[in-house]
Design goal:
- By secondary structure, this protein is α/β, with parallel strands linked by helices.
- It folds into two domains: 159 residues, Periplasmic binding protein-like II (D-Maltodextrin-Binding Protein, domain 2); 215 residues, Periplasmic binding protein-like II (D-Maltodextrin-Binding Protein, domain 2).
- The chain is built from 17 helices and 13 strands.
- A hairpin with a 2-residue loop joins strand 5 and strand 6.
- Helix 13 runs parallel beside helix 17, helix 14 runs antiparallel to helix 15 and helix 15 packs antiparallel against helix 17.
């Protein structure tokens, strides 16, 4: 019996050992596969649309077959929530979201790119392309979209300068985006404030607003309304117009001499699960091959590698050949963005009707009495008197709701008084 039990025990041990060996082998195989999956997968977070991502994804995976992109689509606000709350690793952040990159830089969320940057300039006409551990992967230019056919039918010239949009013939025919509602618009508004100066910039924005229909959301609405002829022109960013033109829209785009750029960036996250794959993708995006993809009809962005413009399509704008009237300070614009957005709402968005009424009254009085008539001058000065100066505005980050409400009320009363003075007989 003892011998029988010993044999059974031995057989049981042998069976268990065999079973454990199989489990261990399976575990090792699965671990090996998991390890392979981790080293091959590159997680890229972006807000770029499918038509942009698909071009880069296909070209990157063809050149680097050892890697497979996994795309996380997140808009700006959702991206920051993901980074702060999810705890899930992201290898590369690649998107046009300037404020996010600035915030993540302060949070020390990036690691050094550690890739070759030969041939990549640090600026384009003074506009910086590198900030900390993130680097611009493309830029977009601000300017004016117009409908030449509709303008010709109305007997109006094609606008090439911001001030052209303030001319009387454009009354009710200009699309003006609200910076607190339209993602690309804050730098656009601040370009005018920096380029013309705080007071003159707001004066010009008021004059344009007198002719404007405000755009509250959806950047493509500007090109849609201008292409239809319902509006004659609008303030926008170049690639929306380029895309519309590629799809047959009868549009034209002009870069005013005083303009600026909106960069998209690429960065490697500090806690990237696949840093080597992240480096490969970042290097590809910035390479000549990756930069040339920006010329694709479905993308139409401005490369940051100057050399690729030798192969640009006919008529494609080259920012490296542009001679700007000034260099837009992007860092300053970002720092005061909430204040300028709030002021735009108080001065224009929430007071558009009284602003337009006051300007029409001033124009009428000026035509009858002369531009330098005392009541015209007084009305204009009152209309253009701002509720806060530049230094004070920059110190408010962010402005309180009470500040915004007070600015709105002050400007409402000034517009009404300006209209009353101008209308006196």
């Amino acid at each position: 019996m003892t011998s029988s039990m010993t044999l059974k025990t031995a057989l049981a041990i042998k069976t268990a050992s065999s079973w454990l060996s199989r489990v261990l082998l399976l575990w090792l195989l699965l671990g090996s596969q998991a390890s392979f999956a981790d080293t091959s997968k590159v997680i890229v977070m972006t807000s770029y649309p499918q038509e942009v991502v698909s071009q880069f994804e296909a070209a990157f995976e063809k050149q680097y077959p050892q890697y497979k992109l996994e795309i996380l689509w997140r808009q700006s606000r959702d991206a920051m929530s993901y980074f702060k709350e999810s705890g899930q690793p992201v290898d590369v952040y690649w998107t046009p979201a300037q404020r996010n990159f600035a915030q993540l830089e302060k949070m020390q969320a990036f690691q050094p790119l550690d890739i070759k940057l030969d041939g990549l300039p640090e600026t384009v006409n003074g506009f910086p392309l590198r900030e900390g551990q993130h680097i611009a992967s493309e830029i977009a230019g601000y300017g004016i979209v117009s409908n030449p056919q509709a303008l010709a039918a109305a007997g109006l010239p094609v606008p090439h300068d911001w001030a052209d949009l303030s001319q009387p013939g454009f009354k009710g025919k200009v699309a003006l985006p609200i910076p607190s509602k339209v993602g690309y618009a804050p730098p656009l508004i601040d370009i005018l404030l920096q380029g013309y100066g705080w007071q003159a910039g707001w004066n010009l924005l008021q004059a344009i607003a007198a002719n404007a229909e405000l755009v509250t959301a959806g950047a493509t609405f500007v090109t849609d309304d201008v292409a239809s002829g319902r509006l004659f022109a609008g303030l926008t960013i170049d690639f929306f117009t380029a895309s519309a033109i590629a799809n047959g829209a009868p549009l034209q785009f002009a870069y005013p001499k005083l303009t600026g750029y909106s960069p998209a960036h690429v960065a490697i996250m500090k806690h990237a699960a696949n840093p080597e794959g992240a480096k490969a993708f970042s290097a590809f995006v910035l390479s000549e091959q990756g930069q040339r993809l920006l010329f694709h009809p479905d993308i139409r962005k401005l490369p940051v590698r100057a050399s690729v413009y030798a192969d640009k399509p006919a008529g494609y704008f080259n920012p490296f050949e542009n001679n700007p009237a000034f260099v837009y300070d992007n860092r300053r614009g970002l720092a005061r963005q909430e204040a300028t957005n709030a002021l735009f709402d108080a001065i224009i968005t929430l007071n558009l009707a009284p602003l337009q009424q006051a300007i029409r009254a001033i124009e009428s009085a000026s035509a009858k009495l002369g531009a330098d008539a005392p009541q015209v001058t007084k009305a204009r000065e009152l209309l253009q008197k701002l509720p806060i100066d530049e230094t004070a505005a920059e110190s408010l980050q962010p402005p309180k709701q009470a500040d915004i409400s007070r600015w709105q009320q002050v400007m409402h009363e000034r517009y009404q008084e300006a209209a009353r003075i101008a209308s006196q007989r």
